[in-house]
Amino acid sequence: MWKKACRGPLCLAVIIGSVIGAVKAAQVVTLNNYSTHNLNRLIFYSFQENLNYWLLAACICAVCIIVILLGALYCFQLLYKKPITVYFTRYAALFDRTWVRMPAYILLAGVVSFNIVVIAVIDRTPHYPNIILISIDDLRADHLGCYGYTRNTSPYLDAFAKDNILFENCFVHEPWTLTSHMSMLTSLYPITQKVDLYTGRALSPAFVTLAEVLKNEGFQTLAFANAGIFMDAQAGFYQGFDSYIKLFNYSPSEPSRNAEFQTVFIKNYLQKNVKKNFFLFVHFFDVHSDHGQTPYSSPPPFNTLFTKLNSIDLGFTEESASIAMVHINKRQQALTKEQLDYLAALYDNSIAYMDQCIGDFFAMLKELDLYENSLIIITSDHGEEFQEHGYLLHSNPYYYDELIHVPLIIKLPHGSPIQSADKRRIAGLVESIDIMPSTLDLLDITTPARVQGKSFKNLLYGNGEGKEYVYGFNLKGSFFVRSKRWKLMSDQGLEEKRLKLFNIENDPLEQNNLAANNIPIKKTLTEKIAEKIAESEQLHSIIVQGHASKNSEGPISYDKEQIEQLKQLGYIQ
Question: What pTM was estimated for this model as a whole?
Protein backbone atom coordinates (compact mmCIF):
# COMPACT_ATOMS: atom_id res chain seq x y z
CA MET A 1 0.00 0.00 0.00
CA TRP A 2 2.83 2.38 0.90
CA LYS A 3 4.49 1.84 -2.47
CA LYS A 4 1.24 2.43 -4.29
CA ALA A 5 0.50 5.53 -2.25
CA CYS A 6 3.95 7.03 -2.82
CA ARG A 7 4.49 6.05 -6.44
CA GLY A 8 2.12 8.55 -8.00
CA PRO A 9 3.14 11.62 -5.94
CA LEU A 10 6.86 10.90 -6.33
CA CYS A 11 6.58 10.51 -10.09
CA LEU A 12 4.55 13.70 -10.12
CA ALA A 13 7.30 15.41 -8.10
CA VAL A 14 9.92 14.34 -10.65
CA ILE A 15 7.78 15.68 -13.48
CA ILE A 16 7.10 18.96 -11.66
CA GLY A 17 10.78 19.38 -10.78
CA SER A 18 11.81 18.74 -14.38
CA VAL A 19 9.28 21.19 -15.79
CA ILE A 20 10.21 23.90 -13.28
CA GLY A 21 13.91 23.32 -13.95
CA ALA A 22 13.35 23.67 -17.69
CA VAL A 23 11.25 26.82 -17.21
CA LYS A 24 13.88 28.37 -14.95
CA ALA A 25 16.57 27.57 -17.50
CA ALA A 26 14.51 29.23 -20.22
CA GLN A 27 14.03 32.28 -17.99
CA VAL A 28 17.77 32.59 -17.40
CA VAL A 29 18.39 32.48 -21.15
CA THR A 30 15.53 34.82 -22.08
CA LEU A 31 15.84 37.44 -19.37
CA ASN A 32 19.59 37.83 -19.83
CA ASN A 33 19.16 38.18 -23.61
CA TYR A 34 22.00 35.83 -24.50
CA SER A 35 23.06 35.96 -28.11
CA THR A 36 26.27 33.97 -27.89
CA HIS A 37 27.45 31.28 -30.24
CA ASN A 38 26.99 28.33 -27.84
CA LEU A 39 23.50 28.70 -26.42
CA ASN A 40 22.97 24.96 -25.88
CA ARG A 41 25.75 24.88 -23.30
CA LEU A 42 24.13 27.68 -21.32
CA ILE A 43 20.82 25.79 -21.36
CA PHE A 44 22.60 22.71 -20.01
CA TYR A 45 24.16 24.73 -17.18
CA SER A 46 20.95 26.49 -16.28
CA PHE A 47 18.88 23.32 -16.39
CA GLN A 48 21.36 21.42 -14.26
CA GLU A 49 21.53 24.21 -11.68
CA ASN A 50 17.78 24.66 -11.40
CA LEU A 51 16.58 21.07 -11.90
CA ASN A 52 18.30 19.64 -8.86
CA TYR A 53 17.12 22.47 -6.62
CA TRP A 54 13.51 22.39 -7.74
CA LEU A 55 13.39 18.61 -7.96
CA LEU A 56 14.46 18.41 -4.33
CA ALA A 57 11.90 21.02 -3.34
CA ALA A 58 9.15 19.21 -5.25
CA CYS A 59 10.06 15.87 -3.65
CA ILE A 60 10.00 17.38 -0.18
CA CYS A 61 6.58 18.86 -0.89
CA ALA A 62 5.36 15.49 -2.21
CA VAL A 63 6.58 13.66 0.90
CA CYS A 64 4.87 16.23 3.11
CA ILE A 65 1.63 15.79 1.17
CA ILE A 66 1.88 12.01 1.53
CA VAL A 67 2.49 12.24 5.27
CA ILE A 68 -0.44 14.62 5.69
CA LEU A 69 -2.66 12.37 3.56
CA LEU A 70 -1.78 9.21 5.49
CA GLY A 71 -2.22 11.04 8.76
CA ALA A 72 -5.66 12.18 7.66
CA LEU A 73 -6.62 8.66 6.61
CA TYR A 74 -5.40 7.27 9.92
CA CYS A 75 -7.53 9.78 11.78
CA PHE A 76 -10.44 8.82 9.53
CA GLN A 77 -9.91 5.17 10.46
CA LEU A 78 -9.91 5.96 14.17
CA LEU A 79 -13.03 8.08 13.81
CA TYR A 80 -15.15 5.62 11.77
CA LYS A 81 -13.61 2.34 13.04
CA LYS A 82 -12.95 1.05 9.50
CA PRO A 83 -9.54 -0.02 8.07
CA ILE A 84 -7.99 2.27 5.44
CA THR A 85 -7.49 -0.67 3.05
CA VAL A 86 -11.23 -0.83 2.46
CA TYR A 87 -11.03 2.36 0.39
CA PHE A 88 -8.14 1.01 -1.77
CA THR A 89 -9.64 -2.45 -2.50
CA ARG A 90 -11.81 -1.22 -5.33
CA TYR A 91 -8.80 0.33 -7.18
CA ALA A 92 -6.03 -2.12 -6.20
CA ALA A 93 -6.37 -4.26 -9.28
CA LEU A 94 -6.09 -1.23 -11.53
CA PHE A 95 -2.80 -0.11 -9.90
CA ASP A 96 -1.36 -3.62 -10.21
CA ARG A 97 -1.60 -3.57 -14.00
CA THR A 98 1.82 -3.10 -15.67
CA TRP A 99 0.49 -1.00 -18.53
CA VAL A 100 -0.65 1.61 -16.01
CA ARG A 101 2.67 1.74 -14.12
CA MET A 102 5.00 1.60 -17.11
CA PRO A 103 4.59 5.22 -18.38
CA ALA A 104 5.48 6.56 -14.96
CA TYR A 105 8.61 4.38 -14.84
CA ILE A 106 9.63 5.42 -18.35
CA LEU A 107 9.13 9.11 -17.56
CA LEU A 108 11.07 8.82 -14.33
CA ALA A 109 13.95 7.00 -16.06
CA GLY A 110 14.00 9.56 -18.85
CA VAL A 111 14.26 12.52 -16.50
CA VAL A 112 16.99 10.89 -14.43
CA SER A 113 18.93 9.92 -17.56
CA PHE A 114 18.70 13.43 -18.93
CA ASN A 115 20.06 14.88 -15.72
CA ILE A 116 22.93 12.40 -15.78
CA VAL A 117 23.73 13.44 -19.36
CA VAL A 118 23.70 17.10 -18.36
CA ILE A 119 26.12 16.44 -15.50
CA ALA A 120 28.36 14.38 -17.81
CA VAL A 121 28.51 17.20 -20.35
CA ILE A 122 29.41 19.70 -17.66
CA ASP A 123 32.10 17.43 -16.27
CA ARG A 124 33.85 17.44 -19.65
CA THR A 125 34.12 21.23 -19.78
CA PRO A 126 37.54 22.85 -19.09
CA HIS A 127 38.52 23.89 -15.60
CA TYR A 128 38.92 27.65 -15.47
CA PRO A 129 40.48 29.95 -12.89
CA ASN A 130 38.35 32.54 -11.14
CA ILE A 131 38.28 35.95 -12.82
CA ILE A 132 38.26 39.14 -10.75
CA LEU A 133 37.93 42.49 -12.53
CA ILE A 134 38.41 45.51 -10.23
CA SER A 135 37.67 49.02 -11.43
CA ILE A 136 38.73 51.91 -9.20
CA ASP A 137 36.65 54.82 -10.39
CA ASP A 138 38.39 58.14 -11.19
CA LEU A 139 41.95 56.81 -10.75
CA ARG A 140 44.45 58.46 -13.10
CA ALA A 141 47.55 56.40 -13.76
CA ASP A 142 50.19 59.04 -13.08
CA HIS A 143 49.17 59.40 -9.41
CA LEU A 144 50.36 55.87 -8.59
CA GLY A 145 53.92 55.07 -7.56
CA CYS A 146 54.16 52.22 -10.06
CA TYR A 147 53.49 54.79 -12.81
CA GLY A 148 56.19 57.18 -11.58
CA TYR A 149 54.39 59.33 -9.01
CA THR A 150 56.63 60.77 -6.30
CA ARG A 151 54.15 60.60 -3.41
CA ASN A 152 53.70 57.24 -1.71
CA THR A 153 50.00 56.97 -2.54
CA SER A 154 49.87 53.29 -3.50
CA PRO A 155 52.20 50.86 -1.67
CA TYR A 156 49.85 47.88 -2.09
CA LEU A 157 49.17 48.50 -5.77
CA ASP A 158 52.89 49.15 -6.33
CA ALA A 159 53.77 45.79 -4.76
CA PHE A 160 51.03 44.11 -6.79
CA ALA A 161 52.39 45.67 -10.00
CA LYS A 162 55.96 44.66 -9.16
CA ASP A 163 54.97 41.00 -8.79
CA ASN A 164 52.69 40.93 -11.82
CA ILE A 165 52.20 42.63 -15.20
CA LEU A 166 51.74 46.39 -15.66
CA PHE A 167 50.62 48.04 -18.89
CA GLU A 168 52.22 51.45 -19.16
CA ASN A 169 49.89 52.80 -21.83
CA CYS A 170 46.25 51.80 -21.34
CA PHE A 171 43.58 54.28 -22.47
CA VAL A 172 39.83 54.54 -21.98
CA HIS A 173 37.48 55.94 -24.59
CA GLU A 174 35.44 58.51 -22.70
CA PRO A 175 36.01 59.97 -19.21
CA TRP A 176 32.55 59.07 -17.85
CA THR A 177 31.73 56.27 -15.44
CA LEU A 178 28.72 54.72 -17.17
CA THR A 179 29.87 54.71 -20.78
CA SER A 180 33.48 53.84 -19.98
CA HIS A 181 32.49 50.78 -17.96
CA MET A 182 29.99 49.74 -20.62
CA SER A 183 32.78 49.81 -23.22
CA MET A 184 34.99 47.80 -20.86
CA LEU A 185 32.34 45.08 -20.46
CA THR A 186 31.16 44.95 -24.10
CA SER A 187 34.43 45.60 -25.97
CA LEU A 188 32.67 48.29 -28.01
CA TYR A 189 33.43 52.00 -28.33
CA PRO A 190 30.86 54.38 -26.78
CA ILE A 191 29.57 55.43 -30.21
CA THR A 192 28.96 51.75 -31.02
CA GLN A 193 27.06 50.67 -27.90
CA LYS A 194 25.51 54.19 -27.58
CA VAL A 195 24.60 54.00 -23.90
CA ASP A 196 23.97 57.56 -22.72
CA LEU A 197 23.25 58.82 -19.21
CA TYR A 198 21.63 62.08 -20.26
CA THR A 199 19.23 60.77 -22.91
CA GLY A 200 18.43 57.72 -20.79
CA ARG A 201 19.51 55.22 -23.45
CA ALA A 202 20.24 51.76 -22.02
CA LEU A 203 22.34 48.99 -23.52
CA SER A 204 20.53 47.06 -26.22
CA PRO A 205 20.20 43.32 -25.51
CA ALA A 206 21.69 42.83 -28.96
CA PHE A 207 25.14 43.51 -27.51
CA VAL A 208 27.01 40.72 -25.71
CA THR A 209 28.76 41.43 -22.43
CA LEU A 210 31.78 39.74 -20.89
CA ALA A 211 29.53 38.42 -18.12
CA GLU A 212 27.23 36.79 -20.67
CA VAL A 213 30.06 34.96 -22.40
CA LEU A 214 31.47 33.72 -19.08
CA LYS A 215 28.01 32.74 -17.86
CA ASN A 216 27.70 30.73 -21.04
CA GLU A 217 30.90 28.90 -20.09
CA GLY A 218 29.57 27.92 -16.68
CA PHE A 219 30.93 30.72 -14.50
CA GLN A 220 28.93 32.09 -11.62
CA THR A 221 28.81 35.81 -12.46
CA LEU A 222 28.75 38.40 -9.66
CA ALA A 223 28.96 42.19 -9.64
CA PHE A 224 29.25 44.67 -6.77
CA ALA A 225 29.02 48.28 -7.93
CA ASN A 226 29.31 51.42 -5.83
CA ALA A 227 28.36 54.42 -7.96
CA GLY A 228 24.67 55.08 -7.60
CA ILE A 229 22.91 55.58 -10.91
CA PHE A 230 26.14 55.57 -12.93
CA MET A 231 26.35 51.78 -12.62
CA ASP A 232 22.64 51.10 -12.32
CA ALA A 233 21.39 47.73 -13.52
CA GLN A 234 18.67 49.36 -15.64
CA ALA A 235 21.37 50.85 -17.87
CA GLY A 236 22.13 47.29 -18.99
CA PHE A 237 24.91 46.32 -16.58
CA TYR A 238 22.83 43.39 -15.31
CA GLN A 239 23.23 41.51 -18.61
CA GLY A 240 24.87 38.18 -17.89
CA PHE A 241 25.21 38.59 -14.12
CA ASP A 242 23.64 36.06 -11.78
CA SER A 243 23.82 38.72 -9.07
CA TYR A 244 24.24 42.44 -9.70
CA ILE A 245 24.40 44.24 -6.34
CA LYS A 246 24.63 48.02 -6.08
CA LEU A 247 26.23 49.31 -2.88
CA PHE A 248 26.03 53.09 -3.20
CA ASN A 249 26.70 54.68 0.20
CA TYR A 250 26.78 51.21 1.73
CA SER A 251 28.02 52.86 4.91
CA PRO A 252 25.74 55.92 5.17
CA SER A 253 26.90 56.79 8.69
CA GLU A 254 30.53 56.79 7.54
CA PRO A 255 30.46 57.36 3.75
CA SER A 256 34.21 57.90 3.62
CA ARG A 257 34.64 54.22 4.57
CA ASN A 258 32.54 52.72 1.79
CA ALA A 259 35.34 50.63 0.28
CA GLU A 260 36.25 48.73 3.44
CA PHE A 261 32.61 47.92 4.20
CA GLN A 262 32.17 46.88 0.59
CA THR A 263 35.01 44.37 0.98
CA VAL A 264 33.43 42.92 4.13
CA PHE A 265 30.11 42.55 2.30
CA ILE A 266 31.78 40.81 -0.65
CA LYS A 267 33.63 38.44 1.68
CA ASN A 268 30.43 37.40 3.43
CA TYR A 269 28.68 36.98 0.08
CA LEU A 270 31.44 34.81 -1.37
CA GLN A 271 31.49 32.60 1.71
CA LYS A 272 27.75 31.97 1.56
CA ASN A 273 26.89 31.99 -2.14
CA VAL A 274 29.80 30.92 -4.34
CA LYS A 275 29.48 27.31 -5.44
CA LYS A 276 31.84 27.11 -8.43
CA ASN A 277 34.30 29.12 -10.50
CA PHE A 278 33.20 32.73 -10.68
CA PHE A 279 33.61 35.99 -12.52
CA LEU A 280 33.63 38.80 -9.98
CA PHE A 281 33.32 42.43 -11.10
CA VAL A 282 34.02 44.93 -8.31
CA HIS A 283 33.58 48.67 -8.76
CA PHE A 284 35.02 50.98 -6.09
CA PHE A 285 33.90 54.64 -6.05
CA ASP A 286 35.91 56.01 -3.12
CA VAL A 287 38.53 57.95 -5.11
CA HIS A 288 35.82 59.85 -7.01
CA SER A 289 34.86 63.41 -6.01
CA ASP A 290 32.08 63.38 -3.46
CA HIS A 291 29.31 65.70 -2.29
CA GLY A 292 30.78 66.59 1.10
CA GLN A 293 32.58 69.77 2.13
CA THR A 294 35.73 68.59 0.38
CA PRO A 295 35.60 66.86 -2.98
CA TYR A 296 37.88 63.92 -2.10
CA SER A 297 37.07 62.58 1.34
CA SER A 298 38.92 59.86 3.20
CA PRO A 299 38.81 58.67 6.82
CA PRO A 300 41.58 59.17 9.41
CA PRO A 301 44.51 58.82 9.21
CA PHE A 302 44.39 59.16 5.43
CA ASN A 303 42.53 62.49 5.47
CA THR A 304 45.74 64.21 6.66
CA LEU A 305 48.31 61.99 4.96
CA PHE A 306 49.37 64.59 2.38
CA THR A 307 47.45 67.58 3.73
CA LYS A 308 46.58 69.32 6.94
CA LEU A 309 42.90 69.14 7.76
CA ASN A 310 41.04 72.08 6.12
CA SER A 311 44.36 73.89 5.71
CA ILE A 312 43.42 75.74 2.50
CA ASP A 313 40.29 77.78 1.84
CA LEU A 314 38.87 76.55 -1.46
CA GLY A 315 36.08 79.10 -1.43
CA PHE A 316 33.36 76.43 -1.66
CA THR A 317 30.14 77.85 -0.24
CA GLU A 318 27.72 75.35 -1.78
CA GLU A 319 26.61 72.25 0.06
CA SER A 320 28.40 70.01 -2.42
CA ALA A 321 32.06 70.41 -3.30
CA SER A 322 31.47 68.68 -6.63
CA ILE A 323 28.80 71.22 -7.54
CA ALA A 324 31.18 74.02 -6.56
CA MET A 325 33.82 72.66 -8.93
CA VAL A 326 31.25 72.43 -11.72
CA HIS A 327 30.54 76.13 -11.25
CA ILE A 328 34.27 76.87 -11.35
CA ASN A 329 34.47 75.02 -14.67
CA LYS A 330 31.53 76.97 -16.09
CA ARG A 331 33.06 80.29 -15.06
CA GLN A 332 36.49 79.17 -16.28
CA GLN A 333 37.79 80.41 -12.94
CA ALA A 334 41.49 79.80 -12.39
CA LEU A 335 42.40 78.59 -8.91
CA THR A 336 45.70 79.48 -7.32
CA LYS A 337 48.58 77.04 -7.38
CA GLU A 338 48.17 76.60 -3.63
CA GLN A 339 44.50 75.69 -4.03
CA LEU A 340 45.21 73.27 -6.89
CA ASP A 341 48.01 71.60 -4.96
CA TYR A 342 45.64 71.19 -2.03
CA LEU A 343 42.95 69.63 -4.24
CA ALA A 344 45.50 67.21 -5.71
CA ALA A 345 46.71 66.32 -2.21
CA LEU A 346 43.12 65.58 -1.11
CA TYR A 347 42.80 63.36 -4.17
CA ASP A 348 46.04 61.60 -3.20
CA ASN A 349 44.68 61.06 0.31
CA SER A 350 41.69 59.21 -1.13
CA ILE A 351 43.97 57.13 -3.38
CA ALA A 352 46.02 56.11 -0.35
CA TYR A 353 42.85 55.05 1.48
CA MET A 354 41.66 53.11 -1.56
CA ASP A 355 45.08 51.46 -1.84
CA GLN A 356 44.80 50.25 1.76
CA CYS A 357 41.37 48.82 0.95
CA ILE A 358 42.81 47.03 -2.08
CA GLY A 359 45.39 45.50 0.25
CA ASP A 360 42.54 44.37 2.52
CA PHE A 361 40.71 42.98 -0.50
CA PHE A 362 43.75 40.91 -1.48
CA ALA A 363 44.06 39.68 2.12
CA MET A 364 40.40 38.64 2.01
CA LEU A 365 40.98 36.66 -1.20
CA LYS A 366 43.98 34.92 0.35
CA GLU A 367 42.02 34.11 3.50
CA LEU A 368 39.33 32.46 1.35
CA ASP A 369 42.04 30.67 -0.68
CA LEU A 370 40.92 32.49 -3.85
CA TYR A 371 43.96 34.62 -4.62
CA GLU A 372 46.42 32.22 -6.25
CA ASN A 373 44.00 30.56 -8.65
CA SER A 374 42.48 33.82 -9.91
CA LEU A 375 43.06 36.01 -12.93
CA ILE A 376 42.96 39.48 -11.33
CA ILE A 377 42.66 42.64 -13.43
CA ILE A 378 42.87 46.12 -11.89
CA THR A 379 42.00 49.20 -13.93
CA SER A 380 39.95 52.41 -13.92
CA ASP A 381 37.28 54.10 -16.03
CA HIS A 382 38.88 57.57 -16.28
CA GLY A 383 41.22 60.01 -14.59
CA GLU A 384 40.89 63.47 -13.03
CA GLU A 385 42.10 66.95 -13.94
CA PHE A 386 43.43 69.73 -11.72
CA GLN A 387 43.31 72.56 -14.26
CA GLU A 388 46.29 71.24 -16.20
CA HIS A 389 44.14 72.27 -19.15
CA GLY A 390 41.68 74.64 -17.51
CA TYR A 391 39.20 72.27 -15.86
CA LEU A 392 38.54 70.42 -12.61
CA LEU A 393 36.97 66.96 -12.24
CA HIS A 394 36.79 65.12 -15.59
CA SER A 395 34.61 67.59 -17.47
CA ASN A 396 37.03 68.78 -20.14
CA PRO A 397 35.52 68.21 -23.60
CA TYR A 398 39.06 67.65 -24.87
CA TYR A 399 40.36 64.25 -23.80
CA TYR A 400 43.82 65.02 -22.46
CA ASP A 401 45.89 62.15 -21.09
CA GLU A 402 45.17 62.98 -17.44
CA LEU A 403 41.56 61.98 -18.21
CA ILE A 404 42.03 58.91 -20.40
CA HIS A 405 45.33 57.33 -19.29
CA VAL A 406 44.42 54.73 -16.67
CA PRO A 407 46.23 51.94 -14.83
CA LEU A 408 46.02 48.36 -16.03
CA ILE A 409 47.69 45.70 -13.87
CA ILE A 410 47.11 41.98 -14.33
CA LYS A 411 47.88 38.97 -12.15
CA LEU A 412 47.79 35.66 -13.97
CA PRO A 413 46.55 32.56 -12.15
CA HIS A 414 49.08 30.26 -10.48
CA GLY A 415 50.72 27.93 -12.97
CA SER A 416 50.28 30.22 -15.96
CA PRO A 417 53.02 29.72 -18.58
CA ILE A 418 53.49 33.52 -18.80
CA GLN A 419 55.72 34.20 -15.83
CA SER A 420 58.85 35.75 -17.34
CA ALA A 421 60.24 38.61 -15.22
CA ASP A 422 61.19 40.68 -18.27
CA LYS A 423 57.49 40.99 -19.21
CA ARG A 424 56.50 42.78 -16.00
CA ARG A 425 56.04 46.14 -17.77
CA ILE A 426 54.50 46.38 -21.22
CA ALA A 427 54.89 49.63 -23.13
CA GLY A 428 52.61 48.86 -26.08
CA LEU A 429 49.36 50.81 -26.53
CA VAL A 430 46.21 49.03 -25.37
CA GLU A 431 42.59 50.11 -24.86
CA SER A 432 39.94 49.43 -22.25
CA ILE A 433 37.90 47.53 -24.85
CA ASP A 434 40.79 45.04 -25.09
CA ILE A 435 40.12 43.70 -21.58
CA MET A 436 37.18 41.50 -22.63
CA PRO A 437 38.82 39.70 -25.60
CA SER A 438 42.12 39.37 -23.70
CA THR A 439 40.41 37.76 -20.71
CA LEU A 440 38.64 35.27 -22.96
CA ASP A 441 41.80 34.59 -24.96
CA LEU A 442 43.79 33.87 -21.80
CA LEU A 443 41.17 31.24 -20.92
CA ASP A 444 41.00 29.88 -24.50
CA ILE A 445 37.35 30.89 -24.75
CA THR A 446 36.10 32.02 -28.15
CA THR A 447 35.52 35.78 -28.30
CA PRO A 448 32.22 36.93 -29.87
CA ALA A 449 32.74 38.03 -33.46
CA ARG A 450 31.31 41.54 -33.21
CA VAL A 451 33.62 43.25 -30.75
CA GLN A 452 36.07 46.06 -31.42
CA GLY A 453 38.78 45.22 -28.92
CA LYS A 454 41.80 43.04 -29.64
CA SER A 455 43.45 40.53 -27.34
CA PHE A 456 46.79 41.61 -25.89
CA LYS A 457 47.73 38.06 -24.94
CA ASN A 458 50.57 38.15 -27.48
CA LEU A 459 52.09 41.11 -25.60
CA LEU A 460 52.27 38.97 -22.46
CA TYR A 461 54.44 36.54 -24.39
CA GLY A 462 56.63 39.36 -25.66
CA ASN A 463 55.25 39.25 -29.21
CA GLY A 464 54.20 42.42 -31.03
CA GLU A 465 54.30 46.07 -30.00
CA GLY A 466 50.69 46.85 -29.13
CA LYS A 467 48.23 48.86 -31.16
CA GLU A 468 49.34 51.48 -33.62
CA TYR A 469 46.40 53.73 -32.69
CA VAL A 470 43.92 54.00 -29.82
CA TYR A 471 40.64 55.90 -29.98
CA GLY A 472 38.00 57.64 -27.90
CA PHE A 473 34.65 59.21 -28.70
CA ASN A 474 31.47 60.43 -27.13
CA LEU A 475 28.04 61.02 -28.61
CA LYS A 476 28.42 64.81 -28.54
CA GLY A 477 31.43 65.17 -30.85
CA SER A 478 34.50 64.87 -28.62
CA PHE A 479 37.10 62.42 -29.87
CA PHE A 480 40.79 61.56 -29.81
CA VAL A 481 43.06 59.32 -31.82
CA ARG A 482 46.50 58.62 -30.40
CA SER A 483 49.67 56.83 -31.41
CA LYS A 484 52.80 56.58 -29.32
CA ARG A 485 54.08 59.78 -30.89
CA TRP A 486 51.04 61.80 -32.00
CA LYS A 487 47.59 62.71 -30.68
CA LEU A 488 44.74 64.44 -32.49
CA MET A 489 41.55 65.48 -30.69
CA SER A 490 38.50 67.72 -30.93
CA ASP A 491 35.48 68.73 -28.89
CA GLN A 492 33.22 69.16 -31.95
CA GLY A 493 33.84 66.40 -34.43
CA LEU A 494 36.06 66.98 -37.45
CA GLU A 495 35.51 70.73 -37.53
CA GLU A 496 38.88 72.07 -38.60
CA LYS A 497 39.14 74.97 -36.17
CA ARG A 498 38.34 72.71 -33.20
CA LEU A 499 41.19 70.26 -33.83
CA LYS A 500 44.21 70.01 -31.53
CA LEU A 501 47.37 68.12 -32.40
CA PHE A 502 50.24 67.23 -30.06
CA ASN A 503 53.59 65.52 -30.45
CA ILE A 504 53.38 63.32 -27.34
CA GLU A 505 57.02 62.28 -27.45
CA ASN A 506 58.30 65.85 -27.34
CA ASP A 507 55.35 67.37 -25.48
CA PRO A 508 53.94 64.76 -23.02
CA LEU A 509 52.01 67.41 -21.07
CA GLU A 510 50.13 68.44 -24.25
CA GLN A 511 50.87 72.17 -24.11
CA ASN A 512 51.97 72.98 -27.68
CA ASN A 513 49.08 72.67 -30.17
CA LEU A 514 50.44 71.95 -33.66
CA ALA A 515 47.06 71.72 -35.44
CA ALA A 516 47.67 74.97 -37.34
CA ASN A 517 50.73 73.44 -38.98
CA ASN A 518 50.11 71.73 -42.30
CA ILE A 519 51.84 68.44 -41.55
CA PRO A 520 51.00 65.04 -43.10
CA ILE A 521 50.30 63.32 -39.76
CA LYS A 522 47.30 65.60 -39.23
CA LYS A 523 45.66 64.33 -42.43
CA THR A 524 46.51 60.73 -41.54
CA LEU A 525 44.99 60.95 -38.08
CA THR A 526 41.90 62.74 -39.40
CA GLU A 527 41.34 59.91 -41.88
CA LYS A 528 41.87 57.33 -39.13
CA ILE A 529 39.26 58.84 -36.84
CA ALA A 530 36.78 59.26 -39.70
CA GLU A 531 37.21 55.60 -40.65
CA LYS A 532 36.75 54.45 -37.06
CA ILE A 533 33.59 56.54 -36.62
CA ALA A 534 32.08 55.14 -39.83
CA GLU A 535 33.07 51.59 -38.84
CA SER A 536 31.50 51.99 -35.39
CA GLU A 537 28.24 53.41 -36.70
CA GLN A 538 27.98 50.61 -39.23
CA LEU A 539 28.70 47.95 -36.60
CA HIS A 540 26.00 49.40 -34.33
CA SER A 541 23.45 49.18 -37.14
CA ILE A 542 24.42 45.62 -38.06
CA ILE A 543 24.17 44.34 -34.48
CA VAL A 544 20.97 46.13 -33.50
CA GLN A 545 19.08 45.55 -36.75
CA GLY A 546 19.88 41.84 -36.60
CA HIS A 547 18.39 41.42 -33.13
CA ALA A 548 14.75 40.77 -32.31
CA SER A 549 14.86 43.30 -29.46
CA LYS A 550 16.40 46.07 -31.52
CA ASN A 551 14.05 48.67 -30.06
CA SER A 552 14.92 47.89 -26.45
CA GLU A 553 17.81 50.35 -26.06
CA GLY A 554 16.07 52.31 -23.34
CA PRO A 555 14.86 54.36 -21.82
CA ILE A 556 16.57 54.63 -18.47
CA SER A 557 14.27 56.38 -16.01
CA TYR A 558 15.50 58.10 -12.85
CA ASP A 559 13.54 58.85 -9.71
CA LYS A 560 13.89 62.04 -7.65
CA GLU A 561 16.51 60.53 -5.35
CA GLN A 562 18.70 59.48 -8.29
CA ILE A 563 18.39 62.90 -9.92
CA GLU A 564 19.45 64.46 -6.64
CA GLN A 565 22.52 62.20 -6.60
CA LEU A 566 23.42 63.47 -10.06
CA LYS A 567 23.13 67.05 -8.87
CA GLN A 568 25.20 66.43 -5.73
CA LEU A 569 27.96 64.84 -7.75
CA GLY A 570 27.96 67.78 -10.13
CA TYR A 571 26.77 66.10 -13.32
CA ILE A 572 23.53 68.02 -13.84
CA GLN A 573 22.28 71.43 -12.66
Answer: 0.81
